[in-house]
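Objective 1b of the project was to move from sequence-level analysis to a structural picture of ligand recognition. The entry below was assembled by the postdoctoral researcher (A.K.) and checked by the PI before modelling. It contains the amino acid sequence of the target and the SMILES of the bound compound, adenosine-5'-triphosphate.
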Amino acid sequence: MKEAKILIVDDNKSILSALDLLLNGSCKKVKCLSSPNALLSELKEDNYDVVLLDMNFKAGINTGNEGIYWLNQILEYNSGMSVVMITAYGDVELAVKAVRSGAVDFVLKPWENEKMLTTIEMAWKLSRSRKEVKNLRLKESELIAEINRNKNHIIGTSSAWEKVMDMVRKVAVTNANILITGENGTGKELVAREIHRLSNRSQNVMVTVDMGSIAENLFESELFGHKKGAFTDAGTDRMGKIEAANEGTLFLDEIGNLSMPMQAKLLSVLENRALTRLGENLPVDIDLRLVCATNCNLAKMIGEGRFREDLLYRINTIQIELPPLRDRIADIPELVEFFVNLYVEKYNKKGLSISSDAIAKLQAYRWPGNVRELQHAIEKAVILSDTHLIGTRDFVFKMDEFSAVDAYGGTLEDMEKQVILGAIEKQMGNLSAVSAQLGVTRQTLYNKIKKYGL
Ligand SMILES: Nc1ncnc2c1ncn2[C@@H]1O[C@H](COP(=O)(O)OP(=O)(O)OP(=O)(O)O)[C@@H](O)[C@H]1O
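Corresponding predicted holo structure:
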């Protein structure tokens, strides 16, 4: 109790001096007030841990209401303050009323010193842990605000991407579980973050669990947490990722990697809205919003007995399919510009830009690794470039993923012709859709169609 600061308020001077004598050696500060009138201003002066408050102040009127009045004043000023009431024998009922109103305990006069010290020590410990909890809450909300402060940089204005973002905006504010599907590197995690950012849960965290990277034997404790001693390596109590996402969003990446026994456990959490840590008996209530992602065909896995159908129904209330980059090549120029700027800044290559020929080449490539591959290709080009312009030669692709160059001998014009033809075929001749897909005006598209005699 050496750190404790105690404020004692009693109009009986002999009580004040007895308490002062008792506490002075064992506490950091003991301040005595003989009237409660200065109580609030004293609380504003210093960071007290415990207030010892008399129930009756006016001599002769022992209603105890003064004590309750001042107790309420203290708690209104600081709801976390530990207040111990000092009361006479006949006033036990009032003391109980004070505890109901928020006092942490009461001591009857005359007190035993040992008992008084123990009560004050308990009150001080409570005050300390309340302060800790308050600070942790403040810290937590500060950290969450910090995490959510950075708006996700989501690039894309093609009609295919706009459809995705429309859907994201619509579903984010609901509590629906969402399954995001798409090839590797199409932006599934980015979209999950955006859903959380736009949701009503954004004041809490989004916890991400990559099912592809957790060893099978650690899976259960990672997800569900454990009690100290639940298994050989469980040296401390640990909260699992599911519980950590309580009231926020749980993002399960690569859900197709979840083993059948784990699928059953996850399903039970979703159905019962409760989980039990390993080695514990009592379940904890959980309020979750689940967003899952996969590049697997879960329907096919159900057919093969590798994924539970009932779990799929739980997790895919809404499914969002992300298009591969090759189906939204109109977004490539903007993505390229974004990544070039990002890496020019990062690698301090001021003045470096990219040629339009190079962008056309990037639009003709098939991008099996999607946006992530594009991002890496640009990062590499920026690092290796020793001129002021990144050109076509800075990007070398495998020929089988680059059919336009392969089939037409590699000239830029042939490549452009191939891209336009491909888009006309894909959009079934709808030139507005073709110009939107390619990111050019209708007039530019007409000029090119005329030029190439398409
Ligand atoms: N529309 C976009 N705008 C900007 N950056 C994007 C976009 N889509 C993806 N990215 C970037 O591409 C990279 C890969 O994205 P992300 O990790 O979200 O993909 P993923 O589909 O979850 O990949 P995987 O299936 O491999 O887990 C990230 O660096 C991400 O920021």
